[in-house]
Amino acid sequence: MKSRTTPRLNLLFASSEAQPLIKTGGLADVAGSLPLALSQLGHDVRLVLPAYPQAVNRAIPLTTAATLELPGYDGSVRILEGRLKDSVPLYLIDAPGLLDRPGNPYTDASGSDWRDNAQRFALFCHAIVVIALNRAGLSWRPDLVHCNDWQTGLVPALLASEDSRPASVFTIHNLAYQGVFNRTTFDQLELPNALWSHQGLEFHDNFSFIKGGLAFADWITTVSPTYAREILASALGYGLEGLLQHRSERLEGVLNGIDYSVWDPASDPAIPQHYDAATFSLKKINKLHLQREVGLPENEHALLFGHIGRLVAQKGVDLILQILPGLLRLADTQLIILGSGDPGLERFLRQECGKHPDKIATVIGYDEPLAHRIEAGCDLFLMPSRFEPCGLNQLYSLRYGTVPIVHRTGGLADTVINATPRNLLNGSATGFVFDRPDVESLWRTIDSAIDFHKRPEIWWQKLAINGMQQDYSWDRSAQHYVEIYQKAIDHPAPNPLAKRTPR
Ligand code: ADP
Ligand code: GLC
Q1: To the nearest 10°, the Cα dihedral for 98, 100, 104, 110?
Q2: 201 within domain boundaries
Q3: CA pair distance 335, 358, nearest whole angstrom
Q4: Are both 130 and 48 inside the same structural domain?
Q5: Sequence-ordered alpha helix ranges (H) in 338-492
Q6: How many CB atoms lie within 10 A of CB 165?
Q7: Rounded to the nearest whole angstrom, what is the distance from the C-alpha of residue 24 to the centroid of ligand 1?
Q8: Which ligand is nearest to the CA of 341?
Q9: In this structure, are 395 and 286 located in the same domain?
Q10: How many domains does one find in the chain?
């Protein structure tokens, strides 16, 4: 249903990944579902993405909607048009030689960043700007462009100097990734010289894509209210806290939602046994299947811990590795880890798993259906992230009645309610939350979770079912975005460079 207070908006949603076309992490989940939620509110939203071969294959049928000449690229760039999930109009930017790389969108087969990422995503940004200004021949003018993460950061900066421009919103999904390159790269890209300034894209003598979003967007959002506060301080501001403080009146946290048509244990095609809050006891059938699938002993009474994620320092997987000796000493506990990323961590995990096949299963790689079965089969989900802008796995865990154990940071702090005696009594508890990202705190919390599990079964069921009943659907978040879009349209931000050139 369309919200009554806002008119129908034309929205261009720009992202470097979107599920089910291409995914490396949570940004893809967001870009694959928020546009649909916005369109269900009655807005004309269109998604723009690079035409990676994988995305093209999954988006077929496609037609060529336009052909463009863009700065910094010798050939012609095509805009391929299709639909996301048979619904939202989709534009794929096809630039042979630059954007058509197979595999991971950002890295080569060895895991190193593509050397020409600045050229690749600058071209993507130029294409978005041309569409945003209705100069691509698509006969469509967006009221607002919603940019996501550094790969789209140049868009607000390039739009700022245009007289008749759409509004812009820039969402920070993870401030740790900024798209920083050197001055030579800035020069090679032939960007307007005026952008090379402290108020512009310059960042400690380097050139920052993300500053384009942070300094020039009409409104900035990030993916949870707590992270919106955390990035104002140096620990998680990565040197951008000053700029963010300066813009804090236009910075808001909007919690991600999740797509319950994809993540619902009552209908999930990837899991062997469907269940819901009323049939919670059926969940253990998924545990038995999962144990068999990953080679752990089948034991419905074993307390099964799970972890899924990119194997990077952010996610605190090293903390999980440090509690392994403790877990191994306990009878009837098992752990399954699914992840890929840091080669050292991958190697270490493989070795540890090999030593304890009756207790730990490690699957190195990226496996979406297995991720669903882990959410369905585990009792507890470990998320000791050092920082977490929002986090989606704890939301999936809640929905699947898999009790999350999380560090109180970012979106984890905003979505998991600690099982204190008080919260248990008043019925608000949904998981276990610890305050410091260190081994002692994690272990203490795991210990209390294990103790809690020894209580009469009804206690555990109540905690898990309370999690299942939380509502993190996109609808509310999408309405919040629409309010922000309207503010951005009604109150455009002044160009930060304009006051530097008084006449
Ligand atoms: P981030 O975006 O920082 O990686 P999120 O929790 O927001 O963290 O989202 C991660 C998403 O990627 C989730 O949908 C998760 O299930 C998925 N994911 C991460 N690693 C894997 C993997 N190895 N296999 C399958 N899915 C994965
Ligand atoms: C980022 C963050 C994660 C968030 C996701 C989607 O990758 O690390 O916390 O959930 O983006 O917004």
Answers
A1: -60
A2: yes
A3: 10
A4: yes
A5: 343-355, 368-377, 393-399, 410-415, 421-425, 439-454, 457-468, 474-490
A6: 18
A7: 7
A8: 1
A9: yes
A10: 2
Burial 200-215 (b: 16+ CB within 10 A, else e): bbbbeeebbbbbbbbb
Query: For the segment 37-86, what is each residue's pLDDT rounded down to a tens digit?
Result: 999 999 999 999 999 999 999 999 999 999 999 998 999 999 999 999 99
Q: Assign 5 a pLDDT band (cuts: 50, 70, 90).
A: low
Query: From atom 10 of ligand 2, which residue's Cα is the shortest distance away?
Result: 391
Q: Note whether 220 and 333 are same-domain residues.
A: no
CA distance 184 to 216: 22
Q: Which amino acid is at 82?
A: G
Span from the CA of 66 to the centroid of ligand 1 (angstroms): 34
Q: Which residues pair with 82 in a beta bridge?
A: 90
How many A from CA of 338 to the centre of ligand 1?
10
Residue range 359-406, pLDDT digits in tens: 999 999 999 999 999 999 999 999 999 999 999 999 999 999 999 999
Name every protein residue with a CB atom under 6 angstroms from any ligand 2 atom.
25-27, 30, 173-174, 223, 256, 388-392, 411
Judge if 459 and 366 occupy the same domain.
Answer: yes
Q: Which residues does residue 171 pair with via DSSP β-bridges, in sequence order?
A: 148, 221
CATH of the domain at 223: 3.40.50.2000
